[in-house]
């Protein structure tokens, strides 16, 4: 019976989250969805370069198409950063306020806090590196009889990796906040129990 009760408690945990926290989670989820969409768009619109000769057929130089993927990547970077900042401010970055009551919820929150920061940093590094690399264009040219310039572009999959880690960060940050909120509620209930007990003996 206890096993079934615990399972029902975990499945209904979201129902006991205050309305303000629910709105915060919805807002953060929307930011993460936007970041994911921009990262996917950046992967699909990566800049491509090709070597062409000038009109006088004397030099080879690189010509690139649109740089819009750089803007998408920077946008995804900023939206994910804002999402993470909101979660951390709401939870006081797990280091402010009164200490949480020891227990499974606090241990789970600590673990999720660490993992979501790891996935967040990986996502941000992929998005930033992809944006910088996509904006880089090979500037030099070569004589027509020399080896054409390399016309370097961002590697395929960099923005896709960023998008994948945006999803991981989205899931883990929400799970962290829910665990933190549950541990916070347990701490509040635990702290109020002595007062209730004393009132019963008056």
Question: What does this entry look like structurally?
Answer:
This protein is mainly alpha-helical. It contains five helices and three strands, in the order ααββααβα. A three-stranded antiparallel β-sheet has the order 1-2-3, with no helix packed on it. Helix 2 runs antiparallel to helix 5 (158-200) and helix 4 (104-135) runs antiparallel to helix 5. It is elongated, with a radius of gyration of 25 Å. 30% of the residues are buried. Mean pLDDT is 75; it is low at 9-14, 138-146 and 189-202.
N/C terminus separation: 36 Å
Helical content (DSSP H or I, runs of 4+): 55-70%
Query: Using only CA atoms, what is the Rg?
Result: 25 Å
Strand content: 5-15%
- Major sheet: size, sense and barrel closure? 3 strands, antiparallel
Shape: elongated
Query: Within the largest sheet, what's the order of strands?
Result: 1-2-3
- Helix segment tally: 5
Order of helices and strands: HHEEHHEH
Average predicted local confidence, pLDDT: 75
Structural class: mainly alpha
How many strands in all? 3
Spans of at least 5 consecutive residues whose pLDDT stays below 50 are 9-14, 138-146, 189-202
Write a brief structural summary:
By secondary structure, the protein is mainly alpha-helical. It contains five helices and three strands.
């Amino acid at each position: 019976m206890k096993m079934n009760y615990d399972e029902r408690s975990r499945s209904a945990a979201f129902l006991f989250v205050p309305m303000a926290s629910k709105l915060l989670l919805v807002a953060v989820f929307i930011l993460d969805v936007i970041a994911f969409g921009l990262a996917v768009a950046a992967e699909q619109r990566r800049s491509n370069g090709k070597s062409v000769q000038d009109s006088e057929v004397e030099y080879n130089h690189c010509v690139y198409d649109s740089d819009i993927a750089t803007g998408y990547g920077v946008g995804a970077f900023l939206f994910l950063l804002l999402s993470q900042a909101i979660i951390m401010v709401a939870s006081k970055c797990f280091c402010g306020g009164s200490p949480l009551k020891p227990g499974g919820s606090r241990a789970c929150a600590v673990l999720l806090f660490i993992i979501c920061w790891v996935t967040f940093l990986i996502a941000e590094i992929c998005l930033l590196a992809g944006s910088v690399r996509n904006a880089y264009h090979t500037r030099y040219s070569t004589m027509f009889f020399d080896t054409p310039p390399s016309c370097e572009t961002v590697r395929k999959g960099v923005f896709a990796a960023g998008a994948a880690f945006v999803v991981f960060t989205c899931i883990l940050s929400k799970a962290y906040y829910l665990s933190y909120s549950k541990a916070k509620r347990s701490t509040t209930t635990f702290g109020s129990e002595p007062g209730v007990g004393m009132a019963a003996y008056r």
